[in-house]
Amino acid sequence: MKQDRTLxxxxxxxxxxxxxxxxxxxxxxxxxxxxxxxxxxSRLDTIWDTFCATPGKIRDGxxxxxxxxxxxxxxxxxxxxxxxxVDAYRFSVSWARVIHADGxxxxxxxxxxxxLLDRLNEYAxxxxxxxxxxxLPQYLEDQGGWLNRETAYKxxxxxxxxxxxxxxxxxxxxxxxxxxxxxxxxxxxxxxxPGHKSRAYGKQAAHHLLLAHGLAMExxxxxxxxxxxxxxxxxxxxxxxxxxxxxxxxxxxADEYFNHWYLQPLLEQRYxxxxxxxxxxxxxxxxxxxxxxxxxxxxYIGINYYTRERYQASASELFEKLEHEQQPLTxxxxxxxxxxxTDLLLDYHQRYLLPPVYITxxxxxxxxxxxxxxxxxxxxxxxxxSHLQAVDDAAMQGVxxxxxxxxxxxxxxxxxxxxLKRFGIVYVDYESQQRIIKSxxxxxxxxxxxxxxxxxxxxQAGAR
Length: 464
Ligand code: FCB
Prior knowledge:
Layout: E1 26-30, H1 33-36, H2 47-52, H3 70-83, E2 88-92, H4 95-98, H5 107-122, E3 126-132, H6 138-141, H7 150-166, E4 172-177, H8 179-188, H9 199-223, E5 228-234, E6 238-240, H10 245-268, H11 290-294, E7 300-304, E8 309-312, E9 320-321, H12 339-351, E10 357-361, H13 378-396, E11 401-407, E12 426-429, E13 434-437, H14 439-463
Parallel strand pairs: 1-2, 1-11, 2-3, 3-4, 4-5, 5-7, 6-8, 7-10, 10-11
Antiparallel strand pairs: 8-9, 12-13
Beta-D-fucopyranose binds near residues 35 and 415.
InterPro entries: GH, GH_1_N_CS, Glyco_hydro_1, Glyco_hydro_1_AS, Glyco_hydro_1_beta-glucosidase
Pfam families: Glyco_hydro_1
Protein name: Beta-glucosidase
């Protein structure tokens, strides 16, 4: 771990009255198992191992076998996290590391996470544990994966075993990370594992994922009643290309298809109206009682935000998505559009009875260069600053936002993009496995240290 204060040339700031500066607003960093852990030999294969081994699926032909070698570097990584002054660390458990194919517990795998949790608690860093960040054990995919209703019950059993073993060590559980990506990208568009391409499959997978979530919520409520239990969804708000009624209608349908498809069942126990526009063969396989399970009360909802999308009417489809062209774009080719985060938070706040919100991922891939042992990333810093300001705007207008996590703690395996895209506020030199804090990481740290100092000052003043 390298620390160099000379890199601090720009700062993250928020207005003094910002709700984000309150003592109990949580700031953190986030990662996910497959993207950082490596140590593939000590777990079962997952759908991502299979996908990576399929030629042409990963842009640089890479895989997650070693990644950031977090399993052997975890102690150093936790010291790094602590040095950044965060309140919380969001990470995910690899199902394939903790449960054997016969359903029994892999104690060695569980012990890894228990040691991690104990260390986080010792450091007074709140553990936010995601149970499923896309890495389905391959043996379950061989039985149909998320197309098989049984997988939802297997997930419940996994959640049960893990939450019993973790006891009271966990501050917050998220059942799933971004079921949209698992279902749509994995089973409908085919660009993520397991790589199926079928509209009917997409809806089937989505329904079973949502059911898995609901079943796991029942288990978590019993096993971890003190934890904040919820789910993490990703949203890209949908904007019409013009003011025409057709474009507005297209954007609304896209919004229902990509965003509300996941949120509305959770909060209102029903799929959005766009469902009626789909042929029966593409309807989700809802069984009696499912929607009540899916609609289990949430302690919070995690929202991941990166960019927005623009739509126009289409002659043959429900909507047509437009390419990102408005500058600035990130290295992913995603438009930098902080207003979208404010808009979506306000929109959902008005439409639904939202539970408390945590921004569980937000960040940007940029072309980072290691020069003389340093990485200066002013664009990422500007991205973080503008999006924190966007969260502040929404909070000032009444949205109950309680936390913000930067994606990501460190550069890692970016799914279909392999190691080509760097999202970290810490740079990873994959050859040496050295971690180097980028200038955005220093700015985040300084912002948090200053916030903590001011918070302590306020508390002292209050005590007098
Ligand atoms: C999100 C994923 C996360 C990461 C970021 C860039 O969709 O949850 O793992 O890949 O995108």
